[in-house]
Design brief:
With about 190 residues, the protein is mainly α. The protein contains 5 helices and 3 strands, in the order H-E-E-H-H-H-E-H. It has a domain of about 120 residues. Strand 1 and strand 2 form a beta hairpin.
């Protein structure tokens, strides 16, 4: 039997991320995604459609509401990305003492994907309109509101992408600052 303090004892390392940490990060990000989806739904302008027969056309020539819808979703995803990497870094720092590890980035990217999908789903469900029923009620010559949809699905990539960019910038700043702090501490000694 070997003693745990002997040099030949197996090294048992504590995992950087526990299941509780991962599930907690995903739960926090899912809640954030729902909240940001609610913000997207509340702030996105509605496009008015003219009803001609049983077909709809935008009331304006080039409605700005479509790009504004996607722009608000993009901003919501970028805010979510910054907050997700911040929460992931805090969880990692609490467990390991360092916030900038590949596991932190990986879990933040996964959680960011989940959060982005929840933003899209929440906003789309809240902004859903039964267009056929609305057209029937409005009749020929009437107007209806277009449903809230994401016309540029690439916007959803902004959540994990923003997390990765913030992680890269934080890593770069840590790399720049560390040598300077080591040089100062060596010159003081």
């Amino acid at each position: 039997m070997s003693d745990l303090t002997s040099p030949t004892a197996p090294i048992v390392s504590r995992p950087v991320w526990s299941r509780v940490d991962v599930l907690g990060l995903i739960a926090v990000t899912a809640g954030l995604g729902a909240a940001l989806g609610l913000v997207w739904w509340a702030w996105a302008p509605r496009v008015v459609l003219d009803v001609v027969g049983d077909v709809t056309f935008p009331a304006e020539f080039q409605p700005g509401g479509y790009i504004a819808d996607d722009g608000i979703a993009a901003v919501a995803c970028m805010v979510g990305g910054v907050l997700t990497i911040a929460v992931a870094a805090l969880l990692a720092r609490r467990r390991t003492g360092t916030a900038l590890g590949y596991a932190t980035l990986g879990w933040a990217l996964l959680a960011g994907g989940v959060g982005a999908i929840i933003v899209w789903w929440t906003g789309s469900q809240l902004g859903a309109v039964d267009l056929d029923a609305a057209i029937t009620v409005a009749g020929d010559g009437g107007q209806v509101e277009a449903p809230l949809t994401l016309r540029m699905p690439g916007v959803l990539v902004l959540w994990p992408l923003t997390s990765a960019v913030v992680f890269m910038l934080a890593s770069w700043l840590a790399w720049i600052i560390r040598p300077a702090s080591r040089q100062r501490s060596q010159s003081v000694q």
